[in-house]
Amino acid sequence: MSGDGVSPLEVTLETVRATASNYNIPPDVKYAYGTAGFRCKADILPPAAYRMGLLAALRAKSVKATIGVMVTASHNPPEDNGLKVVEPQGEMLLPRWEHYSTQLSNTDSASLVEVLQDFSDEAEVTLTSSRGKLVVGRDTRESGPDIVAAVTAGAENLQCKVHNIGVCTTPQLHWIVKQTNISKPNTLQDYYRTFADSFIHLYGKDDVKHSIKVDCANGVGAIALRTIAPLLSDHIDITICNDGSTGRLNENCGADFVKLMQNAPRGVNYVENEHCYTIDGDADRSLFFYSQDHKFYMLDGDKIATLFAWFLNSLMQEAELNLSLGVVQTAYANGSSTSYLYSKGIPVVCVPTGVKHLHKRAEDFDVGVYFEANGHGTVLFSDTAMEMINIRSVRETRKTQKSAVTRLLAFSKLINTAVGDAVTNILAIETILKLCKLSPASWNEMYADLPYRQLKINIRDRDIIKTTDAERKISSPEGMQEKVDALVSDFSSARCFVRPSGTENCVRVHAECATQREADTLAMSVGSMVFDFTEALYSRL
Ligand code: NG1
Ligand code: ZN
Rounded CA gap, 338 and 347, in Å? Predict the structure, then answer.
Protein backbone atom coordinates (compact mmCIF):
# COMPACT_ATOMS: atom_id res chain seq x y z
CA MET A 1 0.00 0.00 0.00
CA SER A 2 1.19 3.50 -0.67
CA GLY A 3 0.88 6.26 1.92
CA ASP A 4 -2.69 7.19 0.93
CA GLY A 5 -3.81 3.56 1.00
CA VAL A 6 -3.81 2.93 -2.76
CA SER A 7 -2.03 -0.29 -3.79
CA PRO A 8 0.46 -0.34 -6.71
CA LEU A 9 -2.00 -2.60 -8.54
CA GLU A 10 -4.77 -0.01 -8.18
CA VAL A 11 -2.44 2.70 -9.45
CA THR A 12 -1.57 0.55 -12.48
CA LEU A 13 -5.20 -0.26 -13.23
CA GLU A 14 -6.17 3.37 -12.89
CA THR A 15 -3.46 4.32 -15.40
CA VAL A 16 -4.81 1.72 -17.83
CA ARG A 17 -8.37 3.04 -17.39
CA ALA A 18 -7.23 6.60 -18.09
CA THR A 19 -5.07 5.74 -21.13
CA ALA A 20 -7.62 3.33 -22.61
CA SER A 21 -10.10 6.16 -22.97
CA ASN A 22 -7.76 7.58 -25.66
CA TYR A 23 -7.94 4.28 -27.53
CA ASN A 24 -11.61 3.47 -27.90
CA ILE A 25 -12.48 0.85 -30.51
CA PRO A 26 -14.32 2.43 -33.46
CA PRO A 27 -17.90 1.18 -33.95
CA ASP A 28 -18.31 -1.99 -36.07
CA VAL A 29 -14.59 -2.79 -35.99
CA LYS A 30 -13.60 -6.37 -35.23
CA TYR A 31 -9.91 -7.23 -34.95
CA ALA A 32 -8.44 -10.69 -35.46
CA TYR A 33 -4.93 -12.01 -34.87
CA GLY A 34 -4.45 -13.78 -38.22
CA THR A 35 -1.69 -15.49 -40.24
CA ALA A 36 0.77 -12.72 -39.41
CA GLY A 37 -0.82 -10.86 -36.48
CA PHE A 38 -3.17 -7.91 -37.01
CA ARG A 39 -3.55 -6.31 -40.44
CA CYS A 40 -6.03 -3.60 -41.38
CA LYS A 41 -6.31 0.01 -42.50
CA ALA A 42 -3.74 1.89 -40.43
CA ASP A 43 -6.19 4.49 -39.10
CA ILE A 44 -8.18 1.92 -37.14
CA LEU A 45 -5.16 0.09 -35.75
CA PRO A 46 -4.10 2.22 -32.71
CA PRO A 47 -6.77 0.81 -30.31
CA ALA A 48 -5.62 -2.74 -31.14
CA ALA A 49 -1.99 -1.62 -30.91
CA TYR A 50 -2.54 -0.15 -27.44
CA ARG A 51 -4.14 -3.40 -26.29
CA MET A 52 -1.27 -5.38 -27.85
CA GLY A 53 1.16 -3.26 -25.86
CA LEU A 54 -0.66 -4.41 -22.72
CA LEU A 55 -0.67 -8.00 -23.92
CA ALA A 56 2.98 -7.96 -24.99
CA ALA A 57 3.90 -6.67 -21.53
CA LEU A 58 1.93 -9.53 -19.96
CA ARG A 59 3.66 -12.02 -22.23
CA ALA A 60 7.10 -10.58 -21.38
CA LYS A 61 6.30 -10.83 -17.65
CA SER A 62 5.02 -14.37 -18.05
CA VAL A 63 8.18 -15.63 -19.80
CA LYS A 64 10.44 -13.26 -17.79
CA ALA A 65 12.29 -12.43 -20.98
CA THR A 66 12.49 -9.91 -23.80
CA ILE A 67 9.80 -10.20 -26.42
CA GLY A 68 9.20 -8.19 -29.57
CA VAL A 69 6.49 -6.30 -31.44
CA MET A 70 6.95 -5.62 -35.14
CA VAL A 71 4.78 -2.97 -36.75
CA THR A 72 4.36 -3.81 -40.43
CA ALA A 73 1.81 -4.89 -43.01
CA SER A 74 4.45 -6.54 -45.19
CA HIS A 75 3.10 -6.87 -48.76
CA ASN A 76 -0.15 -4.94 -48.13
CA PRO A 77 -0.69 -1.47 -49.65
CA PRO A 78 0.82 1.60 -47.93
CA GLU A 79 -2.44 2.66 -46.28
CA ASP A 80 -2.59 -0.62 -44.31
CA ASN A 81 -0.56 -1.45 -41.27
CA GLY A 82 -0.29 -4.32 -38.85
CA LEU A 83 1.58 -5.74 -35.93
CA LYS A 84 2.68 -9.05 -34.56
CA VAL A 85 4.28 -10.28 -31.38
CA VAL A 86 7.61 -12.12 -31.43
CA GLU A 87 8.44 -14.76 -28.81
CA PRO A 88 11.81 -14.85 -26.96
CA GLN A 89 13.62 -17.10 -29.46
CA GLY A 90 12.33 -15.07 -32.41
CA GLU A 91 9.35 -17.35 -33.09
CA MET A 92 5.74 -16.32 -33.67
CA LEU A 93 3.34 -15.88 -30.75
CA LEU A 94 1.95 -19.06 -29.14
CA PRO A 95 -1.58 -20.02 -30.28
CA ARG A 96 -3.07 -19.59 -26.78
CA TRP A 97 -1.74 -16.02 -26.69
CA GLU A 98 -3.00 -15.36 -30.22
CA HIS A 99 -6.39 -16.17 -28.84
CA TYR A 100 -5.86 -13.77 -25.90
CA SER A 101 -4.74 -11.14 -28.43
CA THR A 102 -7.93 -11.36 -30.45
CA GLN A 103 -10.01 -11.28 -27.29
CA LEU A 104 -8.18 -8.35 -25.68
CA SER A 105 -8.07 -6.30 -28.89
CA ASN A 106 -11.87 -6.49 -29.10
CA THR A 107 -12.46 -5.57 -25.46
CA ASP A 108 -13.99 -2.12 -25.05
CA SER A 109 -12.09 0.42 -22.95
CA ALA A 110 -14.51 0.17 -20.03
CA SER A 111 -13.99 -3.58 -19.60
CA LEU A 112 -10.28 -3.65 -20.34
CA VAL A 113 -9.04 -3.70 -16.76
CA GLU A 114 -11.31 -6.58 -15.84
CA VAL A 115 -10.27 -8.72 -18.84
CA LEU A 116 -6.63 -7.90 -18.23
CA GLN A 117 -6.94 -9.14 -14.67
CA ASP A 118 -8.59 -12.36 -15.88
CA PHE A 119 -5.71 -12.97 -18.31
CA SER A 120 -3.10 -12.28 -15.69
CA ASP A 121 -4.80 -14.82 -13.40
CA GLU A 122 -5.04 -17.40 -16.19
CA ALA A 123 -1.43 -16.88 -17.24
CA GLU A 124 -0.34 -16.70 -13.59
CA VAL A 125 1.35 -13.33 -14.08
CA THR A 126 1.50 -10.52 -11.56
CA LEU A 127 0.43 -7.40 -13.40
CA THR A 128 2.82 -5.20 -11.46
CA SER A 129 5.84 -7.50 -11.82
CA SER A 130 8.78 -5.66 -13.34
CA ARG A 131 10.24 -8.64 -15.16
CA GLY A 132 10.46 -8.86 -18.93
CA LYS A 133 11.13 -6.26 -21.61
CA LEU A 134 9.77 -5.29 -24.98
CA VAL A 135 11.63 -4.44 -28.19
CA VAL A 136 9.56 -2.58 -30.79
CA GLY A 137 10.41 -1.95 -34.43
CA ARG A 138 8.56 -0.71 -37.49
CA ASP A 139 8.83 -0.65 -41.26
CA THR A 140 8.77 2.55 -43.36
CA ARG A 141 4.99 3.11 -43.43
CA GLU A 142 3.90 6.65 -42.54
CA SER A 143 1.50 5.35 -39.90
CA GLY A 144 4.28 3.44 -38.10
CA PRO A 145 5.19 6.01 -35.40
CA ASP A 146 1.55 6.33 -34.19
CA ILE A 147 1.19 2.57 -33.93
CA VAL A 148 4.51 2.27 -32.08
CA ALA A 149 3.35 5.03 -29.70
CA ALA A 150 0.15 3.09 -28.96
CA VAL A 151 2.06 -0.16 -28.30
CA THR A 152 4.49 1.71 -26.06
CA ALA A 153 1.68 3.34 -24.11
CA GLY A 154 0.13 -0.06 -23.41
CA ALA A 155 3.37 -1.71 -22.35
CA GLU A 156 4.45 1.23 -20.19
CA ASN A 157 1.08 1.32 -18.48
CA LEU A 158 2.09 -2.10 -17.10
CA GLN A 159 5.56 -0.79 -16.21
CA CYS A 160 7.22 -2.85 -18.93
CA LYS A 161 10.46 -1.34 -20.27
CA VAL A 162 10.22 -0.62 -23.99
CA HIS A 163 13.20 -0.38 -26.31
CA ASN A 164 12.19 1.25 -29.57
CA ILE A 165 14.70 0.31 -32.28
CA GLY A 166 12.95 2.45 -34.90
CA VAL A 167 12.85 1.47 -38.57
CA CYS A 168 14.03 -2.09 -39.21
CA THR A 169 13.15 -5.14 -41.29
CA THR A 170 10.93 -7.82 -39.72
CA PRO A 171 13.79 -10.36 -39.61
CA GLN A 172 16.08 -7.83 -37.93
CA LEU A 173 13.52 -7.42 -35.13
CA HIS A 174 13.21 -11.21 -34.73
CA TRP A 175 17.00 -11.56 -34.68
CA ILE A 176 17.45 -8.80 -32.09
CA VAL A 177 14.85 -10.38 -29.78
CA LYS A 178 16.54 -13.78 -30.04
CA GLN A 179 20.05 -12.40 -29.55
CA THR A 180 18.94 -10.40 -26.51
CA ASN A 181 17.54 -13.50 -24.84
CA ILE A 182 20.67 -15.55 -25.44
CA SER A 183 22.87 -12.65 -24.27
CA LYS A 184 24.66 -12.27 -27.59
CA PRO A 185 25.44 -9.06 -29.54
CA ASN A 186 22.03 -7.62 -30.29
CA THR A 187 22.08 -4.25 -32.01
CA LEU A 188 21.30 -3.46 -35.63
CA GLN A 189 25.02 -2.79 -36.11
CA ASP A 190 25.76 -6.26 -34.75
CA TYR A 191 23.29 -7.70 -37.24
CA TYR A 192 25.06 -6.09 -40.21
CA ARG A 193 28.54 -7.01 -38.97
CA THR A 194 27.61 -10.62 -38.12
CA PHE A 195 26.03 -11.46 -41.47
CA ALA A 196 28.53 -9.46 -43.53
CA ASP A 197 31.40 -11.35 -41.85
CA SER A 198 29.69 -14.73 -42.35
CA PHE A 199 29.12 -13.95 -46.02
CA ILE A 200 32.68 -12.78 -46.67
CA HIS A 201 34.08 -15.85 -44.91
CA LEU A 202 32.11 -18.37 -46.99
CA TYR A 203 31.82 -16.49 -50.27
CA GLY A 204 35.50 -15.62 -50.55
CA LYS A 205 36.95 -13.35 -53.18
CA ASP A 206 37.27 -13.79 -56.94
CA ASP A 207 39.19 -11.90 -59.61
CA VAL A 208 35.86 -11.01 -61.15
CA LYS A 209 33.44 -9.30 -58.81
CA HIS A 210 29.85 -10.48 -59.18
CA SER A 211 26.95 -8.07 -59.09
CA ILE A 212 23.28 -8.38 -58.25
CA LYS A 213 20.19 -6.19 -58.49
CA VAL A 214 17.51 -6.11 -55.82
CA ASP A 215 13.95 -4.77 -56.17
CA CYS A 216 13.25 -3.52 -52.64
CA ALA A 217 9.47 -2.94 -53.11
CA ASN A 218 10.03 0.72 -52.08
CA GLY A 219 10.28 -0.55 -48.53
CA VAL A 220 12.59 -0.99 -45.58
CA GLY A 221 14.73 -3.61 -47.32
CA ALA A 222 16.38 -0.77 -49.25
CA ILE A 223 17.68 0.68 -45.99
CA ALA A 224 19.01 -2.69 -44.83
CA LEU A 225 20.73 -3.41 -48.15
CA ARG A 226 22.13 0.09 -48.40
CA THR A 227 23.69 -0.40 -44.97
CA ILE A 228 25.16 -3.85 -45.59
CA ALA A 229 26.31 -3.27 -49.21
CA PRO A 230 29.42 -1.19 -48.35
CA LEU A 231 30.57 -3.95 -45.96
CA LEU A 232 30.47 -6.43 -48.84
CA SER A 233 31.69 -4.19 -51.62
CA ASP A 234 35.07 -5.92 -52.04
CA HIS A 235 33.21 -9.14 -52.82
CA ILE A 236 29.90 -8.34 -54.48
CA ASP A 237 28.16 -5.28 -55.92
CA ILE A 238 24.56 -4.74 -54.89
CA THR A 239 22.39 -2.38 -56.93
CA ILE A 240 19.28 -1.27 -55.07
CA CYS A 241 16.16 -0.69 -57.17
CA ASN A 242 12.79 0.66 -55.97
CA ASP A 243 14.30 2.18 -52.84
CA GLY A 244 11.22 4.25 -51.97
CA SER A 245 12.59 7.56 -53.19
CA THR A 246 10.01 7.78 -55.98
CA GLY A 247 7.60 4.84 -56.08
CA ARG A 248 4.94 3.70 -53.61
CA LEU A 249 5.42 0.75 -51.26
CA ASN A 250 4.62 -2.59 -52.95
CA GLU A 251 3.11 -0.88 -56.00
CA ASN A 252 3.93 -2.74 -59.22
CA CYS A 253 6.98 -4.18 -57.53
CA GLY A 254 8.03 -6.39 -54.65
CA ALA A 255 7.96 -10.14 -54.10
CA ASP A 256 4.17 -10.42 -53.80
CA PHE A 257 3.59 -8.58 -57.08
CA VAL A 258 6.22 -10.62 -58.93
CA LYS A 259 4.94 -13.94 -57.59
CA LEU A 260 1.29 -13.22 -58.38
CA MET A 261 1.87 -11.59 -61.77
CA GLN A 262 4.66 -14.00 -62.70
CA ASN A 263 6.27 -10.96 -64.24
CA ALA A 264 9.23 -8.64 -63.61
CA PRO A 265 8.75 -5.72 -61.22
CA ARG A 266 8.74 -2.16 -62.54
CA GLY A 267 11.87 -0.13 -62.00
CA VAL A 268 14.52 -2.80 -62.54
CA ASN A 269 16.66 -2.59 -65.68
CA TYR A 270 18.37 -5.91 -66.00
CA VAL A 271 20.36 -7.63 -68.68
CA GLU A 272 20.39 -11.29 -69.77
CA ASN A 273 21.43 -13.72 -67.06
CA GLU A 274 21.93 -11.02 -64.45
CA HIS A 275 21.17 -12.22 -60.92
CA CYS A 276 18.10 -10.27 -59.78
CA TYR A 277 16.05 -10.49 -56.61
CA THR A 278 12.76 -9.07 -55.44
CA ILE A 279 11.86 -8.70 -51.78
CA ASP A 280 8.68 -7.62 -50.00
CA GLY A 281 7.74 -4.54 -47.96
CA ASP A 282 9.28 -5.72 -44.68
CA ALA A 283 12.10 -7.78 -46.23
CA ASP A 284 11.19 -11.21 -44.94
CA ARG A 285 10.66 -12.75 -48.37
CA SER A 286 12.88 -12.93 -51.41
CA LEU A 287 12.57 -14.39 -54.91
CA PHE A 288 15.18 -14.66 -57.65
CA PHE A 289 14.62 -13.71 -61.30
CA TYR A 290 16.60 -13.46 -64.50
CA SER A 291 16.08 -13.31 -68.22
CA GLN A 292 17.44 -15.50 -70.96
CA ASP A 293 16.72 -15.12 -74.66
CA HIS A 294 14.38 -12.26 -73.71
CA LYS A 295 12.27 -14.57 -71.55
CA PHE A 296 11.56 -13.83 -67.88
CA TYR A 297 12.21 -16.58 -65.31
CA MET A 298 11.28 -16.41 -61.65
CA LEU A 299 12.71 -18.79 -59.07
CA ASP A 300 10.37 -18.82 -56.10
CA GLY A 301 10.51 -20.04 -52.50
CA ASP A 302 10.20 -23.66 -53.66
CA LYS A 303 13.25 -23.27 -55.90
CA ILE A 304 15.15 -21.64 -53.02
CA ALA A 305 14.11 -24.46 -50.65
CA THR A 306 15.30 -27.11 -53.11
CA LEU A 307 18.58 -25.25 -53.70
CA PHE A 308 19.24 -25.02 -49.95
CA ALA A 309 18.16 -28.63 -49.29
CA TRP A 310 20.22 -29.96 -52.21
CA PHE A 311 23.30 -27.99 -51.07
CA LEU A 312 23.00 -28.99 -47.42
CA ASN A 313 22.23 -32.62 -48.27
CA SER A 314 25.33 -32.86 -50.48
CA LEU A 315 27.52 -31.34 -47.75
CA MET A 316 26.06 -33.67 -45.10
CA GLN A 317 26.73 -36.68 -47.32
CA GLU A 318 30.28 -35.54 -48.07
CA ALA A 319 30.91 -34.90 -44.40
CA GLU A 320 29.39 -38.29 -43.52
CA LEU A 321 27.15 -36.63 -40.97
CA ASN A 322 24.31 -38.77 -39.77
CA LEU A 323 21.65 -36.10 -39.30
CA SER A 324 18.05 -35.87 -40.48
CA LEU A 325 17.26 -33.27 -43.16
CA GLY A 326 13.74 -32.39 -44.29
CA VAL A 327 11.80 -29.72 -46.14
CA VAL A 328 8.55 -28.16 -44.92
CA GLN A 329 6.16 -26.65 -47.47
CA THR A 330 2.55 -25.48 -47.70
CA ALA A 331 -0.22 -26.39 -50.15
CA TYR A 332 1.03 -23.54 -52.39
CA ALA A 333 4.30 -25.41 -53.09
CA ASN A 334 4.67 -26.32 -56.71
CA GLY A 335 4.00 -30.05 -57.20
CA SER A 336 7.24 -30.40 -59.17
CA SER A 337 9.33 -29.18 -56.24
CA THR A 338 7.81 -31.81 -53.97
CA SER A 339 8.43 -34.57 -56.55
CA TYR A 340 12.01 -33.36 -57.06
CA LEU A 341 12.78 -33.48 -53.34
CA TYR A 342 11.27 -36.97 -53.02
CA SER A 343 13.36 -38.11 -55.98
CA LYS A 344 16.46 -37.00 -54.07
CA GLY A 345 15.38 -38.95 -51.00
CA ILE A 346 14.63 -35.78 -49.01
CA PRO A 347 11.48 -35.99 -46.83
CA VAL A 348 8.84 -33.30 -47.41
CA VAL A 349 6.01 -32.26 -45.08
CA CYS A 350 2.99 -30.06 -45.89
CA VAL A 351 1.55 -27.74 -43.21
CA PRO A 352 -1.02 -24.88 -43.19
CA THR A 353 -0.05 -21.43 -44.52
CA GLY A 354 1.89 -19.14 -42.20
CA VAL A 355 5.49 -19.12 -41.07
CA LYS A 356 4.59 -20.21 -37.54
CA HIS A 357 3.37 -23.60 -38.81
CA LEU A 358 6.39 -24.15 -41.02
CA HIS A 359 8.90 -23.06 -38.39
CA LYS A 360 7.44 -25.34 -35.76
CA ARG A 361 7.45 -28.40 -38.03
CA ALA A 362 10.98 -27.70 -39.28
CA GLU A 363 12.21 -28.03 -35.69
CA ASP A 364 11.48 -31.76 -35.91
CA PHE A 365 14.49 -32.23 -38.22
CA ASP A 366 18.17 -31.82 -37.36
CA VAL A 367 18.39 -29.61 -40.42
CA GLY A 368 14.93 -28.29 -41.30
CA VAL A 369 14.53 -26.23 -44.46
CA TYR A 370 11.20 -24.43 -44.66
CA PHE A 371 9.84 -22.15 -47.35
CA GLU A 372 6.53 -20.83 -48.56
CA ALA A 373 6.33 -20.61 -52.35
CA ASN A 374 6.16 -16.82 -52.01
CA GLY A 375 9.71 -16.68 -50.63
CA HIS A 376 9.31 -16.72 -46.82
CA GLY A 377 11.65 -19.22 -45.31
CA THR A 378 14.86 -20.20 -43.60
CA VAL A 379 16.85 -23.16 -42.33
CA LEU A 380 16.85 -24.40 -38.74
CA PHE A 381 19.72 -26.37 -37.21
CA SER A 382 18.97 -28.42 -34.09
CA ASP A 383 21.26 -28.23 -31.06
CA THR A 384 22.44 -31.77 -31.87
CA ALA A 385 23.27 -30.75 -35.43
CA MET A 386 25.22 -27.69 -34.31
CA GLU A 387 27.08 -29.65 -31.65
CA MET A 388 28.06 -32.35 -34.14
CA ILE A 389 29.06 -29.85 -36.84
CA ASN A 390 31.12 -27.81 -34.37
CA ILE A 391 32.97 -30.83 -32.96
CA ARG A 392 33.66 -32.29 -36.41
CA SER A 393 34.89 -28.95 -37.76
CA VAL A 394 37.62 -29.04 -35.12
CA ARG A 395 38.42 -32.77 -35.02
CA GLU A 396 37.98 -33.87 -38.62
CA THR A 397 41.30 -34.58 -40.33
CA ARG A 398 40.17 -36.03 -43.70
CA LYS A 399 40.28 -33.34 -46.39
CA THR A 400 36.92 -33.76 -48.15
CA GLN A 401 34.99 -34.29 -44.94
CA LYS A 402 36.71 -31.35 -43.25
CA SER A 403 35.94 -29.04 -46.15
CA ALA A 404 32.26 -30.09 -46.19
CA VAL A 405 31.81 -29.69 -42.47
CA THR A 406 33.57 -26.30 -42.49
CA ARG A 407 31.21 -25.11 -45.22
CA LEU A 408 28.22 -26.39 -43.26
CA LEU A 409 29.32 -24.47 -40.19
CA ALA A 410 29.90 -21.30 -42.19
CA PHE A 411 26.54 -21.65 -43.96
CA SER A 412 24.71 -22.04 -40.63
CA LYS A 413 26.15 -18.66 -39.62
CA LEU A 414 24.94 -17.01 -42.79
CA ILE A 415 21.34 -17.98 -42.04
CA ASN A 416 19.00 -15.93 -39.87
CA THR A 417 17.54 -18.85 -37.94
CA ALA A 418 15.11 -16.61 -36.03
CA VAL A 419 12.92 -16.20 -39.13
CA GLY A 420 13.16 -16.02 -42.94
CA ASP A 421 15.27 -13.02 -43.93
CA ALA A 422 15.36 -11.63 -47.47
CA VAL A 423 18.75 -9.98 -47.02
CA THR A 424 20.58 -12.98 -45.55
CA ASN A 425 18.81 -15.41 -47.89
CA ILE A 426 20.00 -13.40 -50.90
CA LEU A 427 23.55 -13.66 -49.56
CA ALA A 428 23.12 -17.41 -48.95
CA ILE A 429 21.77 -18.00 -52.48
CA GLU A 430 24.61 -16.02 -54.05
CA THR A 431 27.09 -18.08 -52.02
CA ILE A 432 25.64 -21.44 -53.13
CA LEU A 433 25.51 -20.35 -56.78
CA LYS A 434 29.15 -19.28 -56.64
CA LEU A 435 30.52 -22.24 -54.64
CA CYS A 436 28.66 -24.74 -56.84
CA LYS A 437 29.29 -22.80 -60.05
CA LEU A 438 25.59 -22.78 -60.88
CA SER A 439 24.18 -20.42 -63.50
CA PRO A 440 20.58 -19.19 -63.04
CA ALA A 441 19.53 -21.58 -65.82
CA SER A 442 21.23 -24.62 -64.28
CA TRP A 443 19.59 -23.87 -60.93
CA ASN A 444 16.24 -23.39 -62.66
CA GLU A 445 16.60 -26.65 -64.55
CA MET A 446 16.77 -28.73 -61.36
CA TYR A 447 13.05 -29.20 -62.04
CA ALA A 448 10.42 -27.55 -64.25
CA ASP A 449 7.62 -25.72 -62.43
CA LEU A 450 4.09 -26.87 -63.17
CA PRO A 451 2.06 -23.92 -64.51
CA TYR A 452 -0.17 -22.35 -61.85
CA ARG A 453 -2.57 -19.47 -61.32
CA GLN A 454 -3.54 -17.83 -58.08
CA LEU A 455 -6.58 -15.57 -57.79
CA LYS A 456 -8.05 -13.41 -55.07
CA ILE A 457 -11.84 -13.57 -54.86
CA ASN A 458 -13.73 -10.99 -52.82
CA ILE A 459 -16.73 -12.43 -51.05
CA ARG A 460 -18.83 -10.85 -48.32
CA ASP A 461 -17.44 -12.85 -45.42
CA ARG A 462 -14.36 -14.96 -46.07
CA ASP A 463 -14.69 -16.71 -42.71
CA ILE A 464 -17.61 -18.65 -44.11
CA ILE A 465 -15.02 -20.95 -45.72
CA LYS A 466 -13.31 -23.46 -43.42
CA THR A 467 -10.60 -25.88 -44.52
CA THR A 468 -8.93 -29.11 -43.48
CA ASP A 469 -6.01 -31.37 -44.61
CA ALA A 470 -3.36 -28.60 -44.42
CA GLU A 471 -5.87 -26.27 -46.12
CA ARG A 472 -6.15 -28.47 -49.23
CA LYS A 473 -9.85 -29.32 -48.73
CA ILE A 474 -12.90 -27.22 -47.86
CA SER A 475 -14.76 -28.64 -44.86
CA SER A 476 -17.50 -26.02 -44.88
CA PRO A 477 -19.81 -24.83 -46.45
CA GLU A 478 -21.09 -28.27 -47.23
CA GLY A 479 -20.98 -29.23 -50.90
CA MET A 480 -18.38 -26.67 -51.96
CA GLN A 481 -15.43 -29.10 -52.03
CA GLU A 482 -17.45 -31.49 -54.24
CA LYS A 483 -17.91 -28.62 -56.70
CA VAL A 484 -14.16 -27.94 -56.70
CA ASP A 485 -13.50 -31.66 -57.27
CA ALA A 486 -15.92 -31.73 -60.20
CA LEU A 487 -14.22 -28.75 -61.86
CA VAL A 488 -10.76 -30.25 -61.28
CA SER A 489 -11.85 -33.57 -62.82
CA ASP A 490 -12.28 -31.82 -66.20
CA PHE A 491 -8.47 -31.68 -66.46
CA SER A 492 -6.14 -34.64 -66.78
CA SER A 493 -3.52 -33.70 -64.19
CA ALA A 494 -4.66 -30.80 -62.06
CA ARG A 495 -4.78 -29.61 -58.47
CA CYS A 496 -6.82 -26.77 -57.04
CA PHE A 497 -7.65 -25.56 -53.56
CA VAL A 498 -9.48 -22.66 -51.94
CA ARG A 499 -8.79 -21.00 -48.57
CA PRO A 500 -9.64 -17.73 -46.84
CA SER A 501 -6.68 -15.35 -46.58
CA GLY A 502 -5.42 -14.58 -43.09
CA THR A 503 -3.99 -11.21 -44.08
CA GLU A 504 -6.32 -9.77 -46.71
CA ASN A 505 -10.06 -9.55 -47.08
CA CYS A 506 -10.30 -12.21 -49.78
CA VAL A 507 -10.44 -15.90 -50.56
CA ARG A 508 -7.46 -17.35 -52.44
CA VAL A 509 -7.92 -19.84 -55.26
CA HIS A 510 -4.83 -21.73 -56.37
CA ALA A 511 -4.78 -23.99 -59.45
CA GLU A 512 -1.91 -26.04 -60.83
CA CYS A 513 -2.28 -27.77 -64.23
CA ALA A 514 -0.30 -29.25 -67.11
CA THR A 515 -0.52 -26.01 -69.10
CA GLN A 516 -0.80 -22.31 -68.18
CA ARG A 517 -4.03 -22.02 -70.12
CA GLU A 518 -5.60 -24.86 -68.15
CA ALA A 519 -4.38 -23.40 -64.84
CA ASP A 520 -5.94 -20.01 -65.77
CA THR A 521 -9.22 -21.63 -66.83
CA LEU A 522 -9.48 -23.84 -63.75
CA ALA A 523 -8.66 -20.98 -61.33
CA MET A 524 -11.29 -18.76 -63.00
CA SER A 525 -14.01 -21.38 -62.98
CA VAL A 526 -13.36 -22.34 -59.34
CA GLY A 527 -13.21 -18.64 -58.42
CA SER A 528 -16.57 -17.86 -59.97
CA MET A 529 -18.09 -21.01 -58.45
CA VAL A 530 -16.91 -19.87 -54.98
CA PHE A 531 -18.42 -16.44 -55.53
CA ASP A 532 -21.78 -17.79 -56.79
CA PHE A 533 -21.92 -20.46 -54.08
CA THR A 534 -21.43 -17.97 -51.25
CA GLU A 535 -23.79 -15.39 -52.80
CA ALA A 536 -26.47 -18.10 -52.95
CA LEU A 537 -25.87 -18.87 -49.28
CA TYR A 538 -26.24 -15.20 -48.29
CA SER A 539 -29.44 -14.83 -50.27
CA ARG A 540 -30.91 -17.69 -48.21
CA LEU A 541 -29.96 -16.03 -44.89
P1 NG1 B 1 -2.65 -15.34 -46.39
O2 NG1 B 1 -3.16 -13.96 -46.64
O3 NG1 B 1 -3.19 -16.01 -45.14
O4 NG1 B 1 -2.74 -16.21 -47.61
C5 NG1 B 1 -0.19 -14.49 -46.91
C6 NG1 B 1 0.66 -15.48 -47.63
C7 NG1 B 1 1.33 -16.37 -46.61
C8 NG1 B 1 2.11 -15.56 -45.60
C9 NG1 B 1 1.25 -14.44 -45.01
C10 NG1 B 1 2.00 -13.50 -44.12
C11 NG1 B 1 0.22 -16.58 -49.78
C12 NG1 B 1 -0.64 -17.47 -50.56
N13 NG1 B 1 -0.13 -16.35 -48.53
O14 NG1 B 1 -1.09 -15.21 -46.10
O15 NG1 B 1 2.17 -17.28 -47.26
O16 NG1 B 1 3.23 -15.08 -46.22
O17 NG1 B 1 0.62 -13.69 -46.05
O18 NG1 B 1 2.63 -12.45 -44.76
O19 NG1 B 1 1.21 -16.10 -50.32
ZN1 ZN C 1 6.75 -9.78 -45.39
Answer: 9
105 given a catalytic annotation: no
Position 438 scores a pLDDT of 97
Annotate 387-424 with three-state secondary structure: HHHHHHHHHCCCHHHHHHHHHHHHHHHHCCCCCCCHHH
State which residues form the domain around 193: 189-299
C-alpha 119/C-alpha 8 separation (Å) is: 18
Residue that finishes a domain, picked among 299, 334, 361: 299
| Stated pTM of the model | 0.94
Asked if residue 40 lies in contact with residue 147, where contact means CB atoms within 8 angstroms, the answer is no
Whose C-alpha lies nearest to ligand 1, atom 19? 374
Which of the following is catalytic: 2, 7, 21, 74?
Answer: 74
What is the tens place of the pLDDT at every residue in 72-110? 999 999 999 999 999 999 999 999 999 999 999 999 999
Look at residues 287, 354, 324 and name the one whose alpha carbon lies nearest to residue 91: 354
Q: How confident is residue 3, by pLDDT bands cut at 50, 70 and 90?
A: low
What are the backbone dihedrals phi and psi of residue 493, each rounded to the nearest 5 degrees, phi first?
Answer: -140, 90
Are both 207 and 291 inside the same structural domain? yes
Q: Which residue, judged by its Cα, is nearest atom 12 of ligand 1?
A: 332
Distance CA 22, CA 39 (A): 21
Residue 70 placed within a domain: yes
Distances (CA, A) of 360 to 85, 227, 285, 329, 383: 16, 31, 18, 12, 15
| pLDDT 10s digits, 180-192 | 999 999 999 999 9
Which ligand number lies closest to the CA of residue 503? 1
E strands present in 206-260: 210-215, 236-241
Look at residues 397, 422, 444 and tell me which one is the last residue of a structural domain: 444
Is 175 inside a domain boundary? no
Cβ of 250 closer than 6 Å to ligand 1, yes or no, is no
Same structural domain for residues 126 and 244?
Answer: no
- pLDDT tens digits, one per residue of 437-491: 999 999 999 999 999 999 999 999 999 999 999 999 999 999 999 999 999 999 9
Total tally of structural domains belonging to the chain: 4
